[in-house]
Amino acid sequence: MTSIISDINKTFDHRIRLGIMSILMVNDSVDFNRLKELLEVTDGNLASHIKALEQSEYIDIKKQFIGKKPNTTYEATPLGKQTFAKHLAALEQLIKTSK
What residues does the Winged helix DNA-binding domain cover (predicted)? Predict the structure, then answer.
C-alpha cells in the first residue's frame, strides 16, 4: 500500500520552486526578471532555486541576446510538467482525504 503523500515531490517543497513551476505551467516561457518580479525574490535566491529545478530536469534554460542585452528564459520540460501535475494531484488528494 502506498502512502497518501508518496506522490508529493520534495523538489517542490519550497514556495519559490512551487511558484516557479506554477508560473511555467501556464506560460510557454518566462524570463528571469519577470520571474523575480512575480515571486518578489532576490537574484541569488531565484538563481539557486532555478538551479535545483534545472538539475532535476524540470526546466530548460535558454540564453540569448536581445539587441546587445543578454536575456535568459525558462520553460518547463515535459518531465517537469508531468511531475508537477502529479505533485498537484497528490496535494489535491491529500486535501480531499483530510476533510
Answer: 16-95
Q: How many domains does the chain have?
A: 1
Domain assignment present for 56 = yes
> Please, which pLDDT band fits residue 3 given cuts at 50, 70 and 90?
confident
| Model confidence band, residue 1 (pLDDT cutoffs 50, 70, 90) | very low
In the block, which residue shows the cell 529545478? 53
